[in-house]
Amino acid sequence: MAQAQRVAVLGLGGMGQPMAANILRAGLSTVVWNRRQGPARQLGEQGAEVADSPADAVRRADAVITMVTNGDAVRSIAIDQGMLAAMADGAIWAQMSTIGAADTERIAGLVREERPDVVLLDAPVAGSRGPAEHRQLVVLASGPEQVRERIAPVFDALAQRTVWAGPLGAGSRLKLVNNMLLVFLAEGIAEAMALGHSLGLDRTAVLGALQDSPLVSHWAAEKLERIGRDEYSPQYPLSLGLKDVNLALYEVDIDRFPVATSLAGQWQRAVEHGLGDEDVTVLARALQH
Fold it and tell me: Residue 1 — very low, low, confident or very high, per pLDDT cuts 50/70/90?
Protein backbone atom coordinates (compact mmCIF):
# COMPACT_ATOMS: atom_id res chain seq x y z
CA MET A 1 0.00 0.00 0.00
CA ALA A 2 1.29 3.47 -0.92
CA GLN A 3 2.94 5.56 1.76
CA ALA A 4 1.40 8.85 2.89
CA GLN A 5 2.51 11.61 0.53
CA ARG A 6 0.39 14.58 1.61
CA VAL A 7 0.00 15.42 5.29
CA ALA A 8 -2.43 17.81 6.95
CA VAL A 9 -1.51 19.11 10.41
CA LEU A 10 -4.32 20.70 12.41
CA GLY A 11 -3.29 22.52 15.58
CA LEU A 12 -0.04 24.50 15.59
CA GLY A 13 0.55 25.23 19.26
CA GLY A 14 3.69 24.55 21.25
CA MET A 15 3.88 20.98 19.91
CA GLY A 16 2.03 21.05 16.61
CA GLN A 17 4.09 23.85 15.08
CA PRO A 18 7.52 22.17 15.42
CA MET A 19 6.02 18.80 14.45
CA ALA A 20 4.62 20.30 11.24
CA ALA A 21 7.93 22.03 10.56
CA ASN A 22 9.79 18.72 10.79
CA ILE A 23 7.30 17.02 8.47
CA LEU A 24 7.82 19.84 6.00
CA ARG A 25 11.61 19.58 6.29
CA ALA A 26 11.38 15.86 5.57
CA GLY A 27 10.09 16.72 2.11
CA LEU A 28 6.48 15.67 2.61
CA SER A 29 3.78 17.82 1.07
CA THR A 30 2.30 19.61 4.09
CA VAL A 31 -0.88 21.61 4.58
CA VAL A 32 -1.53 23.32 7.90
CA TRP A 33 -4.43 24.89 9.77
CA ASN A 34 -4.61 26.64 13.11
CA ARG A 35 -7.28 28.60 14.91
CA ARG A 36 -4.90 31.56 15.15
CA GLN A 37 -3.37 32.33 11.76
CA GLY A 38 0.07 33.45 12.96
CA PRO A 39 1.73 30.02 13.31
CA ALA A 40 0.17 28.85 10.04
CA ARG A 41 1.53 31.87 8.18
CA GLN A 42 5.02 31.20 9.55
CA LEU A 43 4.90 27.65 8.18
CA GLY A 44 3.48 29.00 4.94
CA GLU A 45 6.65 31.07 4.56
CA GLN A 46 8.62 27.82 4.86
CA GLY A 47 6.67 26.13 2.09
CA ALA A 48 3.56 24.70 3.71
CA GLU A 49 0.15 25.21 2.20
CA VAL A 50 -2.11 27.18 4.56
CA ALA A 51 -5.76 26.15 4.70
CA ASP A 52 -8.65 28.37 5.70
CA SER A 53 -10.52 25.66 7.61
CA PRO A 54 -10.02 22.12 8.95
CA ALA A 55 -12.22 20.76 6.16
CA ASP A 56 -10.15 22.49 3.47
CA ALA A 57 -6.94 21.23 5.04
CA VAL A 58 -7.83 17.55 4.83
CA ARG A 59 -9.66 17.16 1.50
CA ARG A 60 -6.68 15.79 -0.43
CA ALA A 61 -4.57 14.54 2.48
CA ASP A 62 -3.34 10.96 2.78
CA ALA A 63 -2.70 11.48 6.49
CA VAL A 64 -4.22 13.94 8.94
CA ILE A 65 -2.66 14.87 12.29
CA THR A 66 -4.64 16.59 15.03
CA MET A 67 -2.58 18.17 17.81
CA VAL A 68 -4.84 20.29 20.02
CA THR A 69 -5.49 20.87 23.70
CA ASN A 70 -8.20 18.41 24.71
CA GLY A 71 -10.99 16.10 23.63
CA ASP A 72 -13.50 18.92 23.21
CA ALA A 73 -11.17 20.65 20.75
CA VAL A 74 -10.67 17.41 18.81
CA ARG A 75 -14.43 16.87 18.52
CA SER A 76 -14.98 20.51 17.51
CA ILE A 77 -12.48 20.23 14.66
CA ALA A 78 -13.63 16.79 13.57
CA ILE A 79 -17.39 17.30 13.70
CA ASP A 80 -18.39 20.96 14.12
CA GLN A 81 -15.77 22.23 11.66
CA GLY A 82 -16.20 19.43 9.17
CA MET A 83 -12.81 17.72 9.20
CA LEU A 84 -14.05 14.14 9.45
CA ALA A 85 -16.68 14.53 6.75
CA ALA A 86 -14.14 16.12 4.37
CA MET A 87 -11.45 13.44 4.69
CA ALA A 88 -10.69 11.29 1.65
CA ASP A 89 -11.74 7.66 1.52
CA GLY A 90 -9.03 5.50 3.10
CA ALA A 91 -7.16 8.43 4.65
CA ILE A 92 -5.37 7.98 7.97
CA TRP A 93 -6.30 10.16 10.93
CA ALA A 94 -3.45 10.18 13.46
CA GLN A 95 -4.98 11.69 16.60
CA MET A 96 -1.86 12.84 18.47
CA SER A 97 -3.35 15.14 21.11
CA THR A 98 -3.26 14.01 24.73
CA ILE A 99 -6.96 13.53 25.47
CA GLY A 100 -7.03 10.45 27.71
CA ALA A 101 -8.53 7.01 27.27
CA ALA A 102 -12.22 7.89 27.61
CA ASP A 103 -12.19 10.65 24.99
CA THR A 104 -10.13 8.47 22.66
CA GLU A 105 -12.85 5.83 22.86
CA ARG A 106 -15.48 8.47 22.07
CA ILE A 107 -13.52 9.64 19.04
CA ALA A 108 -13.18 6.04 17.86
CA GLY A 109 -16.95 5.66 18.16
CA LEU A 110 -17.50 8.76 16.04
CA VAL A 111 -15.24 7.42 13.33
CA ARG A 112 -16.99 4.03 13.32
CA GLU A 113 -20.38 5.71 13.02
CA GLU A 114 -19.60 8.58 10.66
CA ARG A 115 -16.60 7.49 8.56
CA PRO A 116 -15.75 3.78 8.81
CA ASP A 117 -13.63 4.20 5.66
CA VAL A 118 -11.20 6.46 7.59
CA VAL A 119 -8.41 4.71 9.51
CA LEU A 120 -8.01 6.15 13.00
CA LEU A 121 -4.70 5.90 14.83
CA ASP A 122 -4.32 6.84 18.49
CA ALA A 123 -0.80 8.25 18.61
CA PRO A 124 0.09 10.78 21.33
CA VAL A 125 3.73 11.71 21.76
CA ALA A 126 6.18 11.64 24.65
CA GLY A 127 8.16 14.87 24.88
CA SER A 128 7.67 18.62 25.12
CA ARG A 129 8.39 21.55 22.83
CA GLY A 130 12.20 21.26 23.00
CA PRO A 131 12.26 17.59 21.92
CA ALA A 132 9.62 18.38 19.30
CA GLU A 133 11.85 21.05 17.77
CA HIS A 134 14.79 18.64 17.60
CA ARG A 135 12.80 15.61 16.34
CA GLN A 136 13.39 13.78 19.62
CA LEU A 137 9.79 12.86 20.37
CA VAL A 138 8.59 9.29 20.84
CA VAL A 139 5.28 8.41 19.21
CA LEU A 140 3.14 6.15 21.40
CA ALA A 141 1.03 4.69 18.63
CA SER A 142 -1.85 2.24 18.57
CA GLY A 143 -4.29 1.07 15.95
CA PRO A 144 -4.59 -1.19 12.90
CA GLU A 145 -1.37 -2.90 11.85
CA GLN A 146 -2.11 -2.62 8.13
CA VAL A 147 -1.43 1.14 8.01
CA ARG A 148 1.84 1.19 9.92
CA GLU A 149 3.95 1.19 6.77
CA ARG A 150 1.89 4.01 5.27
CA ILE A 151 2.23 6.28 8.30
CA ALA A 152 5.90 5.45 9.02
CA PRO A 153 7.39 8.31 6.91
CA VAL A 154 5.23 10.81 8.80
CA PHE A 155 6.10 9.52 12.26
CA ASP A 156 9.77 9.19 11.27
CA ALA A 157 9.77 12.84 10.19
CA LEU A 158 8.62 14.16 13.56
CA ALA A 159 10.00 11.67 16.10
CA GLN A 160 13.15 9.72 16.89
CA ARG A 161 11.15 6.49 17.20
CA THR A 162 7.67 5.02 17.31
CA VAL A 163 6.44 2.54 19.92
CA TRP A 164 3.43 0.52 18.75
CA ALA A 165 1.50 -0.19 21.93
CA GLY A 166 -1.29 -2.42 20.61
CA PRO A 167 -4.92 -1.93 19.56
CA LEU A 168 -6.56 1.48 19.31
CA GLY A 169 -6.59 3.20 22.70
CA ALA A 170 -3.40 1.62 24.02
CA GLY A 171 -1.37 4.63 22.92
CA SER A 172 -3.42 7.03 25.03
CA ARG A 173 -3.19 4.72 28.03
CA LEU A 174 0.57 4.49 27.62
CA LYS A 175 0.75 8.28 27.40
CA LEU A 176 -0.96 8.53 30.79
CA VAL A 177 1.75 6.27 32.23
CA ASN A 178 4.48 8.36 30.60
CA ASN A 179 3.02 11.62 31.86
CA MET A 180 2.57 10.35 35.40
CA LEU A 181 6.32 9.73 35.56
CA LEU A 182 6.93 13.12 33.99
CA VAL A 183 4.90 15.05 36.55
CA PHE A 184 6.60 13.21 39.41
CA LEU A 185 9.98 14.14 37.93
CA ALA A 186 8.90 17.78 37.71
CA GLU A 187 7.64 17.73 41.27
CA GLY A 188 10.80 15.99 42.49
CA ILE A 189 13.01 18.61 40.88
CA ALA A 190 10.94 21.43 42.37
CA GLU A 191 10.91 19.94 45.87
CA ALA A 192 14.64 19.16 45.78
CA MET A 193 15.42 22.75 44.84
CA ALA A 194 13.02 24.07 47.48
CA LEU A 195 14.58 21.82 50.11
CA GLY A 196 18.04 23.14 49.24
CA HIS A 197 16.72 26.67 49.65
CA SER A 198 15.15 25.83 53.03
CA LEU A 199 18.43 24.30 54.20
CA GLY A 200 20.29 27.48 53.37
CA LEU A 201 22.30 26.02 50.50
CA ASP A 202 23.58 28.10 47.62
CA ARG A 203 21.37 27.45 44.60
CA THR A 204 24.32 27.27 42.21
CA ALA A 205 25.90 24.56 44.35
CA VAL A 206 22.66 22.56 44.41
CA LEU A 207 22.28 22.83 40.65
CA GLY A 208 25.90 21.86 40.11
CA ALA A 209 25.50 18.77 42.26
CA LEU A 210 22.31 17.64 40.58
CA GLN A 211 23.19 18.35 36.96
CA ASP A 212 25.69 15.50 36.59
CA SER A 213 23.95 13.12 38.95
CA PRO A 214 23.13 9.64 37.62
CA LEU A 215 19.62 10.25 38.97
CA VAL A 216 18.99 13.09 36.52
CA SER A 217 17.71 12.36 33.01
CA HIS A 218 18.40 14.56 30.00
CA TRP A 219 14.89 16.04 30.37
CA ALA A 220 15.45 16.79 34.07
CA ALA A 221 18.89 18.26 33.40
CA GLU A 222 17.38 20.66 30.87
CA LYS A 223 14.73 21.67 33.41
CA LEU A 224 17.38 22.28 36.06
CA GLU A 225 19.32 24.44 33.63
CA ARG A 226 16.21 26.54 32.99
CA ILE A 227 15.62 26.91 36.75
CA GLY A 228 19.20 28.14 37.06
CA ARG A 229 18.37 30.89 34.55
CA ASP A 230 15.00 31.65 36.19
CA GLU A 231 13.48 30.72 32.83
CA TYR A 232 9.86 29.66 33.18
CA SER A 233 8.45 30.26 29.71
CA PRO A 234 6.20 27.31 28.83
CA GLN A 235 7.55 24.18 27.24
CA TYR A 236 5.29 21.93 29.30
CA PRO A 237 2.83 24.39 30.91
CA LEU A 238 1.74 23.67 34.46
CA SER A 239 -1.93 23.75 33.41
CA LEU A 240 -1.32 20.98 30.86
CA GLY A 241 0.61 18.97 33.43
CA LEU A 242 -2.37 19.23 35.77
CA LYS A 243 -4.67 18.16 32.93
CA ASP A 244 -2.51 15.09 32.35
CA VAL A 245 -2.55 14.05 36.01
CA ASN A 246 -6.31 14.42 36.13
CA LEU A 247 -6.74 12.39 32.93
CA ALA A 248 -4.84 9.54 34.54
CA LEU A 249 -6.70 9.76 37.84
CA TYR A 250 -10.02 9.75 35.99
CA GLU A 251 -9.28 6.23 34.75
CA VAL A 252 -8.40 4.62 38.10
CA ASP A 253 -9.43 4.26 41.72
CA ILE A 254 -7.83 7.40 43.14
CA ASP A 255 -7.63 5.86 46.61
CA ARG A 256 -4.86 3.64 45.22
CA PHE A 257 -2.87 6.67 44.07
CA PRO A 258 -2.79 9.05 47.05
CA VAL A 259 0.49 10.73 46.10
CA ALA A 260 -0.73 11.58 42.60
CA THR A 261 -3.99 12.85 44.10
CA SER A 262 -2.10 15.08 46.51
CA LEU A 263 0.12 16.37 43.71
CA ALA A 264 -2.95 17.22 41.62
CA GLY A 265 -4.33 19.25 44.52
CA GLN A 266 -1.07 21.14 44.95
CA TRP A 267 -0.81 21.89 41.23
CA GLN A 268 -4.45 22.99 41.15
CA ARG A 269 -3.70 25.57 43.83
CA ALA A 270 -0.68 26.79 41.87
CA VAL A 271 -2.80 27.17 38.74
CA GLU A 272 -5.42 29.08 40.72
CA HIS A 273 -2.64 31.43 41.84
CA GLY A 274 -1.96 32.30 38.20
CA LEU A 275 0.95 29.97 37.39
CA GLY A 276 -0.85 27.75 34.89
CA ASP A 277 0.68 29.32 31.78
CA GLU A 278 4.23 28.99 33.11
CA ASP A 279 6.40 25.92 32.61
CA VAL A 280 6.22 23.21 35.27
CA THR A 281 9.64 24.41 36.42
CA VAL A 282 7.86 27.39 38.02
CA LEU A 283 7.02 25.05 40.90
CA ALA A 284 10.62 25.37 42.05
CA ARG A 285 10.12 29.10 42.46
CA ALA A 286 6.67 28.77 43.99
CA LEU A 287 7.80 26.33 46.68
CA GLN A 288 10.57 28.69 47.79
CA HIS A 289 8.11 31.45 48.70
Answer: very low
The pTM of this model reads: 0.90
254 φ/ψ angles, rounded to the nearest 5 degrees: -65, -20
Kindly report, residue by residue over 210-244, the tens digit of the pLDDT: 988 999 988 899 999 999 999 999 989 999 999 99
Contact indicator for 9, 32 with CB cutoff of 8 Å:
yes
Q: Would you tell me which CATH number, out of the four given (1.10.3290.10, 3.30.390.80, 3.40.50.720, 3.40.630.30), belongs to the domain 6-166? A: 3.40.50.720
Domain ranges of the chain: 6-166, 173-286
Output the pLDDT for position 152.
Answer: 97
- The fraction of the chain above a pLDDT of 70, given in percent, is 99
CATH architecture for residues 173-286: Orthogonal Bundle (1.10)
For residues 280, 260, 103, 117, the Cα torsion angle rounded to the nearest 10 degrees is 80
Predicted local distance difference test score (pLDDT) of residue 4: 65
